[in-house]
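Late entry, evening session. Most of the bench is empty. Finally got around to the prediction I had been postponing all week. Sequence below, unchanged from the version circulated by S.P.
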Amino acid sequence: MKKEYLEETYVQIPVMTYKKTKSILADARKIIETARKNAIRSVDFNRVQMYWNLGKRIFEEEQEGKERADYGAYIVQSLSEKLEAEYGGGFGKRQLEQSRQFYRTYPIANALRSQLNWTQYRLLIQIPDKDKREYYELESVNNAWTARETERQINSQLYERLLLSNDKKSVLDVARKQRIPENPSEIIKDPMVLEFLGLEKKATYYEKDLESTIISHIADFLLEMGKGFSFVARQKRILLEDDEFFIDLVFFNHLLKCFVIIEIKTGKLTHQDIGQLQMYVNYYDRNEKLPEENPTIGILLCSSKNDTAVKMALPKENKTILASEYKLYLPTSEQLVKEIEEVKQLAASAKSN
């Protein structure tokens, strides 16, 4: 008996020790990773404060010699030569000019956000529109965007694309967390810019290839989709009597509290496509949606669309079926502005009629 007890004890101790060690290891890793992130954030914010203080000092000195127009340029040039010689890169003429602009754009030190780094602030100070700058500042903080993500959203004109179907106040109120999005148009963008897929320039793509590439870049796709999206399924199989159907992509939006179904169409949109998507939406509403959740939203992600045909194929009060055009390459600012103005003119014309 004694031998059995000792053997049993001998077996149990390592198992308990292993479990405890595993738990401690997980906690230790979390502590270390958190400390590292905080350290990096602290260093980044110290750099932000350094450039802000440099900008403040340069601006104050400029005001002393405001009678001479070239005095500010002389200060920056002279200072950059001396600082670069003593401290190396990071203090050139351009950096010091950006520091001055940074201070003038954000004159209150306490208003600086510790979540943003110097690269993000350099992007923000290049935006002259105050509301637009505030939007990207808030969304960078709210969504923990990296500098690369902030730059991409600015370059893809996220703010302008949202304004196509929303007024400025509602867009800013959501960014300020003063209200929760209620309508799909407040989150879902048209067009969607999918340049991150890295696809070669071809006349056409197979839908399955585009879908597979999206899945391979799902994190970037979720970023482009917008707030509150979680991936649920790909090629979701549904059975209606003896017929099988497969839904391309299924998401859930935690802000809108509803499922979002995406069907990918690489050709021109047809009314049959709209009917198929409506069937999928009806299926989810009747079989998957919980009573407390909102009606399912369907998005036809297409290479081109006829807005009038889409509207005519849907009920007048439709709020759940949307068509969004996708762009595989990041347009220039001029191209995007032109497209946005065209859409606004069409909307204004339709409203007047």
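Two things to note before I forget:
DSSP finds 13 helices and six strands in the chain.
Confidence is low (pLDDT under 50) at residues 1-11.
Will write this up properly tomorrow.
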